[in-house]
Write a structure and sequence with these properties.
The protein is α+β, with helices and mostly antiparallel strands. A hairpin with a 4-residue loop joins strand 2 (54-58) and strand 3 (63-66). The chain has three helices and five strands, in the order H-H-E-E-E-H-E-E.
Length: 135
Amino acid sequence: MKKISLIIILALVMFACKNDTKQPVDLEENRAKSYDQNDGFITVKGDFVYYADAAVLQTPKEIFGVVIDENMHILAEQVKAFKTEDTDMVPVTVRVRKFEKDKDEEGWQFKVEIKEILKVEAPDPNKEDVIKLAN
């Protein structure tokens, strides 16, 4: 009888000692969920520039023309804070719909339509891939 009572008490103690610690919300993890959505969009990380009437998104492997719409203008406003000149490219991470341009249209083979802005980063000040012409 004592053994059964001891087993019941141990079982109650084990179940009563829940380790219910709250974990902090990780914004990067929530942002990463957006990468994995199965909605037909792709996540692209690259350098963005909008100048006059053209917008470009350049990744290490490809260059895309960007559809000029409301989301592109929102991204252009967010990027302005990191630009020192109008032609500066700023690193961004966006979710886009990628499609091939019309045959009679000028520009790069593929275009992207921005659907979600995930991240806008400051450009690396030590990056030396820009050629500047002097008078």
